Amino acid sequence: MMNSMESFSLTTGLLRDVFRYAKPLGHNQQPGKLNLGFGFIYYGIVRAIRPKHTLVIGSGYGFSVVCLALGIKDNGEGSLTFVDPSYSLLKNGPLMTVGGVNKWGNQTKVYDHFRQFGVEDFVKHYKLRNDQFFPLYESDKLPGIDIAFIDGSHSYIDVKYDFINIVKHSHKNSYIFLHDTNLYIREMIRHSGVKRWLKVIRQYPDYFEVLDFPFDCGLAIVRVLQDKIWEPT
Ligand SMILES: C[S@@+](CC[C@H](N)C(=O)[O-])C[C@H]1O[C@@H](n2cnc3c(N)ncnc32)[C@H](O)[C@@H]1O
Asked: pLDDT tens-digit profile of 107-119?
């Protein structure tokens, strides 16, 4: 019999719903085998380190948000802040988003979307761009960041901006995920700059430990090694 404190969300039905409604885009997933690919890493790291505050910048259908929030729910502690201005490829064009589907335009629909996975009470959505969100950080009294996930605009300038601002609110042993480290052609034509940004932070081994998974669209995990705020030179 399950103790009332015990919670494990990853049933077959839930995994099917994640594939159906949170539609992973480039996370090395295998739908036919109900294999969430990197999604298991997102869920697993939350269970392993039990973050108080997780921040996600950008998501097409909420796959990263749902996997992380399911971990928070099963831990029984923590909250997730999700920042996405709800761009769509059709409306805003390929310079603003690749894969954006205007999923986050309506507050009630956002709540109902996350309710399908039972994580609606753990997720707070800001319908803002990264550069509108970070200036609100202090006035909204947001807590420090234990885990962050960068998957918004993939331009070098935005990835750099997201990373630097996340580090400002992080601490020793915060973890920062960067999705899309393996977009060879888009990096080559300068449409994406995640891989290029990773090269920069690898030059600071006293500050950051970097691990890359170059499968499918690619995923990197960065561990912050110091409490001291990092200023890129
Ligand atoms: C579609 S996702 C990329 C696909 C992603 N790999 C996934 O698995 O969902 C990109 C999202 O980032 C959002 N986005 C684009 N520019 C942004 C910005 N400047 N700040 C925050 N989010 C942004 C878009 O609205 C879109 O929903």
From this structure: 999 999 999 999 9
